[in-house]
Amino acid sequence: MILYAISFSFIASTIENHSMPIVFSFTIAGIFYAINVTWLAAIYVYTAILVNERIQIYKEELPTFSNYGILLQEIIRLRDNIHHINHLSSAAMLTKTLTNGLMMATCICTFDHQLNTPKIGWLPVISTLTYLIPMFIDLSASCMASQWMHKEMGDFVHAIQERIALANIFRVHYNNYYKSHPERKQLINTNHNNLIMTGLRPIINDGEYHCLEQICMMHDSFYFTVMDTFDLKNLFMLSLASYVLSYAILLIQTRDSHIRFESIQ
User: Fold this and answer.
1) What mean pLDDT value characterizes the chain?
2) 123/90: higher pLDDT
3) Phi first, then psi: what are they for 231, rounded to 5°?
4) In principle, which of 4, 7, 156, 177 could form an S-S bond with 34, CB 3.0–4.6 Å?
5) How far apart are CA 186 and CA 184, in angstroms?
């Protein structure tokens, strides 16, 4: 918001015979414009924070969680909420991605023109930069929030996999130690209850294993998506940067060709 407001104030300063009321009006307009274009990124960041906090709680409670079926239901609820947000915001995010990409390419072309124009002054150059930077930050924030949420879920899946491995190792040792001697069979239930009371939660039955397996399979569902076609992640920003630079180069070449044609005329 601050960068957009500064950009609009610099744009107002480039107007001939500008006055403080005009600059102030442009600054206020920049603030309202920033609110209008950054609300989607704010929703993504806020949602990612809430989801990550919930996943961290589940990760801390995983060793002593009493029922992994309930844990699976909670993760399904989180996944469905993310899917609902994607359904509501996909069209807006697609429009925002396309328009911001075109505007960033236009800013790059304008910036190149300003640098190659003698005696143009520094205010137009700064206004172009301060308008370009927040657009890039806006899209980057959305992608980083999505990637952050996916990474947090990945850490949770890693913790689940470690829990399954340890439980399987302990199950083999448990069966070999207690069931191999008739005298120890009487101590199975007592020792199992003591281990659960101490928070180790070592035994995982087949039903619980399938619940944890289903949670691991939902890892890729923890992304913000656009129209169910692509995920918002770091790779998307690389693709967007390639698209913006390619279009900016095309604009610069078209502008130079037009200038040469006019000079020939």
Assistant:
1) 76
2) 90
3) -95, 150
4) 4
5) 5
